[in-house]
Write a structure and sequence with these properties.
With about 400 residues, this protein is of the alpha/beta class. It folds into three domains: about 1-70, no CATH class; about 80-350, Aldolase class I (TIM Barrel, Alpha-Beta Barrel), CATH 3.20.20; about 365-395. The chain contains 15 helices and eleven strands. The protein has a six-stranded parallel sheet. Strands 1-2-3 form a three-stranded parallel sheet. Helix 10 (about 260-270) packs parallel to helix 12 (about 315-330). It starts with a helix and ends with a helix. About 30% of the residues are buried. The model has no long low-confidence stretch (mean pLDDT about 95).
Length: about 400
């Protein structure tokens, strides 16, 4: 989130040049309001009393204030009182994916993560009826084809999500399975077969797991013990058996990294057959145990132009080279397509068989599918440098 800081401040400058009053809020602002000193109005925190105060202020004053005004949430609005977003203002047929939130917060305390301090460790919840109402409202404004549950950890409260999932199953059946669901969850989801079967029945197709590293010692060091409750490769294969394609987060630059780390990560990618990964450099977020530890050790680097604010234990350029090699190798077309071929054989066939409902087979979806296929064939199959790899893959399907 903080990576958007330069652009956010640049937009503020442009608005001020046009004489406009500027307002900013959200996760980056709530985590580090000091990053945005030139905005006229800051909203810090979640939806609650500060939002009411800010709206009242904006209704009363139109001119820019002489100094920054900050509204900070003291009394958060419970999630079960959240209003339905104004989806009617959007044409969701123009979107690739929609989003819904069921819970906020995460019970775990990974060293690098600021979610527990921003949103709490006891997940706060919407009701299943709220979620269904949001899904209905989304469908009234168009069908993006996929809905992503943006919860920090979809299974942070397993009892609650176990109560939600049967409602999602029924909603899909009644509506003809118009969308595929996706979510973020901890890898130990693989140890909950009842949840996995319900997710399969509700047509969840993708789960993002913060695996971070295949090294058990590194996971212990960053307080990610929940990834050690069963062998990581076994957990991934379990999720695949329920039709869930795993997307993984990977972090490079941990204190436990060595010159062999890149090769170990690439071996893990090969063995796990995870097609899509976010491979990131370690970055210390304020209000995290990692920040406090590195600050005490004098290892926070504020120099502009660096890819990370962390003083790594390994040489900086060596860590950057490992990072670049991991990304470049992981996304070589042959390597990537091999992993997708694995998913086609071992994951996608495990999904439920969907009905040929009007919600799925209709003119808009056919038009969208033909457009995507034409673009794919033209841009990748004709003009790309890896077109032979593409057609070799296509011949396997």
């Amino acid at each position: 989130m903080h990576i958007q800081r330069p652009r956010i401040n640049q937009i503020n400058e442009l608005a001020h040049k046009a004489g406009k009053l500027t307002v900013v809020g959200g996760p980056s602002v709530s985590g580090c309001p000091e990053y945005y000193p030139d905005f006229d109005v800051l909203h810090v925190g979640e939806l609650g009393d500060a939002m009411d105060q800010m709206i009242e202020y904006l209704d009363t004053f139109r001119d820019r204030p002489t100094q920054q005004i900050r509204f900070e949430t003291r009394d958060r609005l419970p999630l079960d009182q959240f209003p339905i977003p104004a989806y009617n203002l959007l044409n969701l047929n123009q979107y690739f994916i929609g989003s819904v939130q069921f819970s906020s917060g995460c019970p775990y305390r990974c060293e690098f993560c600021d979610i527990p301090e921003l949103y709490g460790q006891n997940p706060r919840l919407k009701t299943p009826q709220q979620v269904l109402a949001e899904l209905d409202t989304i469908m009234e404004s168009g069908n993006p084809g996929g809905i992503y549950f943006v919860d920090d950890n979809f299974v942070g409260n397993r009892r609650a999500v176990t109560e939600l999932l049967p409602h999602l199953v029924d909603w899909q059946k009644v509506n003809g399975y118009p969308v595929q669901f996706a979510c973020e969850a901890t890898l130990n989801l693989a140890q909950s077969p009842k949840l996995l079967e319900l997710m399969r029945e509700a047509y969840f197709g993708t789960v993002f797991c913060g695996i971070e590293t295949p090294d058990p010692d590194a996971l212990k060091f960053i307080s990610k013990d929940q990834n050690l409750s069963m062998p990581i490769l076994d957990a991934i294969k379990t999720l695949n058996r329920y039709g869930l394609e795993v997307v993984s987060g990977i972090i490079i630059g941990l204190d436990t990294d060595t010159p062999e780390t890149c090769d170990r990560i690439l071996d893990f990618i090969r063995l796990s057959n995870i097609p899509m990964l976010t491979i990131n450099l370690l970055y210390a977020l304020p209000k995290t145990p990692l920040w406090r530890r590195l600050e005490a050790e004098g290892r926070i680097n504020f120099d502009d132009g660096r890819e990370s604010n962390v003083e790594f234990l390994m040489p900086y350029e060596e860590v950057l080279e490992m990072w670049r090699r991991c990304i470049t190798t992981a996304y070589e077309p042959e390597f990537l397509y091999d992993r997708f071929a694995y998913q086609c054989q071992h994951t996608y066939p495990n999904r439920i068989k969907l009905p040929k409902s009007e919600a799925r087979v209709n003119k808009e979806n056919i038009r969208r599918g033909l457009t995507m296929m034409a673009n794919l064939f033209l841009r990748v199959g004709v003009f790309s440098s890896y077109r032979k790899t593409f057609w070799d893959m296509a011949n396997l399907l």
